[in-house]
Amino acid sequence: MSSVDEELSNKVFNNPLILEYILSYVVPDFLPNFKIREYGPFDMQSLFNTRYRRCFKRLIVTDQLFDRIANDCVRYSSSKEECYRKLNIFINVPIRCGMLVFWISESRRLNQDDRLPNHHSMPREVFELMINMWKPKAIEIHFKYDYRIDISRKQWIDSEYFTKVRLNDPYEPFGDDSNLPKLRYVELNLRDSLLCSTDFCFLDPTKTWYRGFDNVIANIRSVFPTDQIIVKGFNMYNYDVEPFSDVFSNLLKIVQKGDNEKLTIKSQFFIDYDPKRADSEQISIQIPKEYTLLDYRSLFYHPELPEKLQERPDRCRMRKWICKKFRFEDEKKNFHFQLNTFLPESVIKLKDVDAGTKSLLSIFE
């Protein structure tokens, strides 16, 4: 096979839409059982072009798609009832997925003069109908900074036909009016987050960087029926041990917000520590007494996590991490919080370190 043929075949077989089109003519009976591992982000054109049943393990949609669907429904409707009929036509396509992934931008603005990028409101009825019709077993909320830096165009808000949902708003129960099925779990992915991760690390409402993301877990439980929330990719880079102590305390406050009865939360926390720059001689790490540190220690392979915005995570090298598990439980509420904490193995092996670093290393012994 020539290099040109190989390049062409890669383009065809790596594009699910082209592959589907070919299969629709070659083996049409095969399509209902053809399952694509991951596709997205799904857009309006993909919705319009969906003719045959599609099955996805992971299907990516965006907050921009939610806006576009809601705005189009409002633009061509003269009443709320007509708007919802159009919404049903948009989303009632032959799609099934195992996990529905929401890419949510942290970088949107209200207007040209807005200098505070943020996560903006989403139309609840749009993503709820997707869940009910496409029947995912789980949801992933993936916050992305520096992704789609644009001005929010939200005619749907002015219409008042849709319910506004913003996951970093102050927590308020949404009530029992949702008709969503119970999800196996909701995953909060912070790998590409800056604003949400910053609020988790430095929880201080008086600061200009604060965006209210300490409410995100409580709001996720309120919006999406589930008994399990998984936090992945949360990491902090520092060369002092004191900020890491604050994170342990912040997470305890965050996970206990809202309705946490019969809830299990599992979270990753990657401590990307640089002892060569450390100045922690008089400081030792402080872990809140509410945590129980489990004796079990494990080795974990995961890409390295450089400072935010410095390098794309998918281009990072694999790295060895040592994992220790912390646990917090409230038996009366049947609430369980497990914090899997990771430190690079290269840091563990260091010998000549200051007192602060020693206090951090002692946790991972």
Automatic annotation (TrEMBL):
Specify one Pfam family.
PHA-1
Against InterPro entries, the record matches this protein to: Regulator_protein_PHA-1
- Protein's UniProt name: F-box domain-containing protein
Species the sequence originates in = Caenorhabditis tropicalis
